[in-house]
Amino acid sequence: MFTGIIEELGKVVSLKRGSQAAVLTIEGNVIFDDLKLGDSVAVNGVCLTASHISGNVFQADVMNETFHRSSLGSLQKGDRVNLERAMAANGRFGGHMVAGHIDAAGELISKKKAANAVWFTVKAPPQVMRYCVEKGSIALDGISLTIAELGEDTISVSMIPHTMEHTNFASKKIGDRVNLENDMVGKYVEKLLQTPKEQEKKTSGITMETLLRAGF
């Protein structure tokens, strides 16, 4: 579990892809204070497990399903990524509950400066939009943000200078992919309100292609 409060900007050392998975190597600083093998780290909002640590560099295995749902597959050597360690149970809760399980990737379609903030508008797929509410929470590349405006298929957020300076959004360009994670409460409420027949119908819609992408 994460809070969506980014701890630092890391740097991609390498992304070595195989036929079914890849190894992502990232360099950082702050998160290595207490990072151990097997710990979870959110990389641009994607929960990954540190499988190897050497100095201030860690490696994580990335499955094909992760590439399918997120923008991690487009990372290149030298790219800056948002990093956050898993939330400590005794710590202050600064953002909102973020699982690190990306729902989908959206596309940045607008970036506008206004007073002391910058407005970003992201085009999102229907499975993300259905759980979005104005003034509700959403994570963009792992950053806990408030939805300022909602369009038919767009989400707009406003970022203060501090957030811009300490996350990868300072370098975001129009057309870039953005990892999106909905607030999890809405999904659980929807599931609880469904009848057993509705739940069965939703499960039966899972195709063999979906299972293969997930590695089953």
Architecture overview:
The protein is an alpha+beta fold and 216 residues long. 19% of the residues lie in helices and 38% in strands. It has helices at 64-69, 126-129, 161-165, 184-193, 196-204, 208-213; strands spanning 8-17, 21-27, 40-43, 46-54, 57-63, 80-85, 104-114, 117-123, 137-140, 143-146, 149-150, 154-159, 177-182. The strands form two sheets. It has a seven-stranded antiparallel sheet. It has a six-stranded antiparallel barrel with strand order 1-2-5-4-3-6. A hairpin with a 3-residue loop joins β1 and β2. 29% of the residues are buried.
Shape: globular
End-to-end Cα distance: 24 Å
Helix count equals 6
Q: Topology as H/E string?
A: EEEEEHEEEHEEEEHEHHH
Structural class: alpha+beta
Radius of gyration: 17 Å
Would you count the extended β strands for me? 13
The major β-sheet equals: 7 strands, antiparallel
Helix content: 10-25%
Uncertain stretches of 5 or more adjacent residues = none
Rounded mean pLDDT is 90
Order of adjacent strands in the largest pleated sheet: 10-9-13-7-8-12-11
